[in-house]
Amino acid sequence: MASVDEIPLRKIIHVDMDAFYASVEQMDHPELKGKPLAVGGSEKRGVVSAASYEARKFGVRSAMSGFAAKRNCPDLIFVKPRFERYREISQQIRKIFFDYTDLVEPLSLDEAYLDVTVNKKGNPSASLLAKEIRQRILDEVGLTASAGISINKFIAKVASDYNKPNGQKTVNPQDVLEFLENLDIKKFYGIGKVTAEKMYQHGIFTGKELRERSLEYLQQHFGKSGTHYYNIVRGIHLSEVKPHRTPKSVGAERTFSENLTSEVFMLERLENIASELDKRLKKHKIAGKTITLKIKYSDFVQQTRSKTISYFISDKDLILETAKELLYQEKLENSVRLLGISLSNLNTEKKAKPVEEKSISVQLKFDF
Fold this sequence. Notes:
Helix 10 packs across helix 11 (225-232) and helix 12 packs antiparallel against helix 13 (316-327). The protein has 4 domains: 8-19 and 84-175, Alpha-Beta Plaits, CATH 3.30.70; 20-81, MutS, DNA mismatch repair protein, domain I (3-Layer(aba) Sandwich); 184-232, Orthogonal Bundle (DNA polymerase, domain 1); 249-346, DNA polymerase, Y-family, little finger domain (Dna Ligase, domain 1), CATH 3.30.1490.100. The chain has helices spanning 20-28, 53-56, 66-72, 83-98, 126-140, 153-160, 176-181, 193-201, 207-211, 215-222, 225-232, 263-284, 316-327; strands spanning 12-17, 37-39, 50-51, 77-79, 104-108, 111-115, 145-150, 168-170, 249-260, 288-297, 302-313, 336-346. The longest helix is centred in the last third of the chain and has 22 residues, at 263-284. Residues 1-5 and 351-365 have low confidence and may be disordered. With 368 residues, the protein is of the alpha+beta class. It starts with 11 loop residues before the first strand and ends in a 22-residue tail after the last strand. Mg(2+) binds at residues 16, 110.
């Protein structure tokens, strides 16, 4: 059992923009405010990238087909995504973050972790800092954000969803265990639908029930992930905020306006995708050893085929030849709506020593 002195106490803020892509579109096009909006897709095909809160009331979600989204919400308005604009806004928001700390770890264009244990404002209250950051985003950018504040990244991430949209939730150290015990298991960040269903089958519906399971039990039924689940439900998550996150893969993909029925029709598309991937690799000076071909069929079933070679590559022609080889590896199961190529096992990856996360049962005391 570790003593309180052995636990790295941090003040972590997780900032998550509210319906980011859709909110940017509503900000730039006032006529769309208050209306159900989907970014990406169309009523006949394609996939929704983001949905406004007005659309979410009808069950419209990201990754949903445009057809299903329109069926759920007949008045749904589709707009094309403008990623350059979203990146521009994201950079404005990150500049605000850096006014408070240099320990900023972006997860995507619309969310980031901030370690404000020691901050540029000299403010000991992470909760007040989060409130100030959210207000500045609203005043300077015009968008609302939600935030979670706690002792580590995991709890801050979970907490940021608690009072969405345009709210924040602080989980003080002494309240961590109670907060996690009362949480529905599907609200735990990192526990997806499949794992949640498996936990339900084991009678685990809340954090309390998860905490009652022994380490041996969780390892037996959930493998290596069992140790992670055992730790997080006890508020143990030692991952630091990493300002420079190294990508684990680089890829490019395309969704087609019409389904493709033959490998022959896909070769030209693969060349275009490989060209886009080539640009990204050259821009970041990245090479890798594992090439993965992603295939999404017309029935939305997804398949990946991978090949690992013994040396690093970044050359478009080599990547394309391997992607073609993977395409012809086995017969297609259906017509194809999307193809993608990604490169992983990169030359940027560093082998890190595993961190041992010790079990604790002490009550933390830390002024938030």
